[in-house]
Amino acid sequence: MAKRVAVVLAGCGVFDGSEIHEASAVLVHLSREGAQAEVYAPNIPQMHVVDHMKGQPTPEQRNVLVESARIARGNIRDLAKLDVKGLDALIIPGGFGVAKNLSTWATQGKNCSISREVEDVLRAFHAAQKPIGLCCISPVLAAKIFPGCELTVGHDTECEQWPYAKTAESMKELGCRHVNKHVGEIHVDGRNKLVSTSAFMCNAPIHEIYDGIGKMVQEVVRLA
Description:
Elements: E1 4-8, H1 20-32, E2 36-41, E3 49-51, E4 56-58, H2 64-71, E5 77-78, E6 89-92, H3 96-100, H4 105-108, H5 116-127, E7 132-135, H6 139-145, E8 150-151, H7 166-173, E9 177-178, E10 187-189, E11 194-197, H8 206-223
Parallel strand pairs: 1-2, 1-6, 2-5, 6-7, 7-11, 8-9
Antiparallel strand pairs: 3-4, 10-11
Helix pairs in contact: 1-8
Organism: Climacteris rufus (rufous treecreeper)
Protein name: GAL3A protein
């Protein structure tokens, strides 16, 4: 039987939704592993819409589920309808939508709140001891919900290669154990069944990011 893996998206586009290359890489690697991806997103308004040419917010209003459907080619479900009983694992790609639409990390950092639907889903998979894959910024969701867990968002020292390294320090302040890893590596928290990789938290060639996500997906499927 093919493993059924829920993939939760946060919109469409790095600055206000899911990072498209990360989401695509997750779906491609799941297919390669023979797993069945089931894509979900919350049916809520986006925090805001960003013009990706200018990097500036616009007056538009968009819906997270509707925008996520672009990546899923229309084959998507409302996150409120997710039933953990019929699924083997969960993966959440990164992108600023995780920090803006699935949580308030973008504006509140470690003091953020997590969307109730998203928190319920994470807790349900965790309670069922089913693996959870997280990449880029999405590990902050687990850091907030599961104190003492082990995760990586790459490195904790800011430099040109690691421009978002301060995220690791905020995660540590939540009681998370952050483990430094290169972009092509993953970290596995066996006790909590959390598999994380840095993806675009690192300023790296896109094929290296793709390969790191592949290792994350492989391990999530193996654990499922």
